[in-house]
């Protein structure tokens, strides 16, 4: 089968060659079932998450031994099932996530870890749902308990997790303020009906958001969704209400922000550190319920999955470059056996 392996730590955006940290094999062994309740899936698509990029750079919190096949969330079709599998049959359309291994034509998972993709839902898009939408759903719904009428501020709002947070915020009935850089991202967010969009590359976030809040007779921000960190977090803190929730999602800026405990005390803020993947070990039921609810929202059209770039596995360096260069609007995908899809914009 075709598989991408990380053979050394380095920059995965350089052209795939002898010096690249990633290599494509066309004759990798197809994985066997690992238990009587396991299932082999023929992968249709797998998404690029910022974490996949950081992992190959050697900058992610989890550092698997080399060589490894990267990749986390994916969709596909059930290819082969163990004798004790009761809920799936060959041919079923599924999606799931793993710690590693989805940048390959086949992957093996336990049946309890797979989700049926509802009829009518695009299978390639379903491969982008678990990590990005799952993270934002657990953060906003389970942790911050975002409710109708509350003000949600989303940083990095056109990226993978950011765009999912914007949409989940709208489903919850929140007033959504989005921060993104560049005209294309700003226009796209406006087209989704976001209440206020700030171009972080041009406008002062504090001034722009304060003006909007004043015009809408709102006091401040109730929930801050932060996958960026650094200077943006520092500025956003000036906009938070008494009793606000801060969701620490990631540090795409490369800068881990400091949140002063004295201000958190005085303002009664709740600060949530959120590592979605670790819920698989500590709160598996929360993850399962969350992905199932998201799939039902996807089937009803309450959320849509925007894919700005799609590549073949052999073009994975270009896919990583789209992430590194902040070009993604929504998700960047690797799709298998699907030459008909729109080619990359790069
Ligand atoms: N906690 C969890 O469980 C969890 C789960 C998934 C992701 N994450 C984290 O969330 C962050 C975003 O992940 P993602 O997959 O959504 O990535 P992404 O699609 O690449 O989005 C990142 C966004 O961050 C913004 N950004 C600001 N400064 C940046 C910089 N210096 N370099 C790159 N981007 C910058 C970009 O928006 P503009 O260009 O518009 O500014 C970009 O749209 C990552 O840190 C990731 O590790 C955490």
From TrEMBL:
SMART domains: PKS_ER. Residues 22-334 form the Enoyl reductase (ER) domain. This is Enoyl reductase (ER) domain-containing protein. It holds the Pfam family ADH_N. The lineage of its organism: Eukaryota, Viridiplantae, Streptophyta, Embryophyta, Tracheophyta. One of its GO terms (molecular function) is zinc ion binding. InterPro entries: ADH-like_C, ADH-like_N, ER, GroES-like_sf, NAD(P)-bd_dom_sf, Quin_OxRdtase/zeta-crystal_CS, Zn-ADH-like_protein. It comes from Kingdonia uniflora. SUPFAM superfamilies: GroES-like, NAD(P)-binding Rossmann-fold domains.
């Amino acid at each position: 089968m075709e598989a991408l392996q990380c053979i050394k730590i380095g920059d995965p955006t350089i052209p795939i060659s002898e010096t690249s940290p990633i290599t494509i094999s066309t004759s990798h062994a197809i994985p066997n079932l690992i238990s009587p309740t396991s299932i082999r899936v023929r992968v249709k698509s797998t998404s690029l998450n910022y974490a996949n990029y950081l992992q190959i750079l050697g900058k992610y919190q989890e550092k698997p031994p080399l060589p490894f096949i990267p990749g986390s969330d994916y969709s596909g079709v059930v290819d082969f099932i163990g004798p004790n599998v009761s809920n799936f049959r060959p041919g079923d359309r599924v999606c799931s996530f793993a710690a590693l291994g989805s940048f390959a034509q086949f992957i093996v998972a336990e049946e309890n870890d797979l989700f049926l993709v509802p009829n009518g839902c695009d299978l390639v898009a379903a491969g982008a749902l678990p990590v990005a939408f799952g993270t934002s759903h657990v953060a906003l719904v389970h942790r911050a308990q975002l409710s109708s009428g509350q003000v949600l501020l989303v940083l990095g709002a056109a990226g993978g997790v950011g765009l999912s947070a914007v949409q989940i915020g709208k489903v919850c009935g929140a007033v959504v303020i989005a921060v993104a850089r560049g005209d294309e991202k700003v226009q796209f967010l406006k087209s989704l009906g976001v209440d206020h969009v700030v171009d972080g590359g041009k406008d002062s976030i504090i001034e722009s958001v304060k003006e909007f809040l004043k015009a809408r007779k709102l006091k401040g921000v109730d929930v801050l969704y932060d996958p960026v960190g650094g200077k943006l977090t520092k500025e956003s803190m000036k906009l938070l209400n008494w009793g606000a929730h801060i969701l620490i999602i990631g540090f795409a800026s490369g800068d881990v922000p400091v949140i002063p405990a004295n201000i958190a005390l005085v303002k009664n803020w709740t600060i949530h550190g959120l590592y979605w993947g670790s819920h698989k070990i500590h709160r598996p039921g929360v993850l399962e319920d969350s992905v199932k609810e998201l799939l039902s929202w996807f089937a009803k059209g309450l959320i849509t999955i925007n894919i700005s770039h799609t590549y073949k596995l052999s073009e994975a360096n270009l896919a990583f470059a789209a992430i590194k260069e902040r070009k993604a609007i929504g998700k960047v995908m690797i799709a298998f056996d699907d030459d008909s899809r729109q080619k990359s914009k790069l």
